[in-house]
Design a protein that fits this description.
Length: 121
């Protein structure tokens, strides 16, 4: 099991998919990293050599991933809250931030509907 950026990559997945387990790396960025290191995207994590794992580590160290990226995102949200921006207020109230309607949807943010009095079913 390869450990890159503090994340254990799953052994039986292709390297292109396994890299997406790292926060901040999606399919596109994973493909870019693989191209830059010259590794085949079809190789499984368990079949990587130590040199290939080290090449991936060096390439990913140059990117902002995992803890640094999480801190940056949280800092950006906190900045919006501190300056009382509209988006910051929406974050603080745990409501959708990007203009979605909340009258009939937004159940993910608002949670389950409250129980109505007198309604059994």
């Amino acid at each position: 099991m390869a450990r890159i950026a503090g994340v254990n990559l799953p052994n039986n997945k292709r390297i292109e998919v396994a890299l997406t387990y790292i926060y901040g790396i999606g399919r596109t960025r994973a493909a870019e990293v693989i191209d830059q290191t010259g590794i085949s995207p079809d190789v499984r994590v368990k079949d990587l050599t130590e040199n290939e794992v080290n090449a991936l580590r060096r390439e990913i160290e140059q990117l902002m991933v995992e803890g640094d990226l999480r801190r940056r995102v949280q800092g950006s949200i906190q900045r919006l809250k501190d300056i009382n921006a509209y988006r910051g207020i929406r974050h603080a109230k745990r409501l959708p931030v990007r203009g979605q309607r909340t009258r009939s949807n937004a159940r993910t943010w608002k949670g389950p509907r409250p129980a109505k009095a007198g309604k059994k079913r």
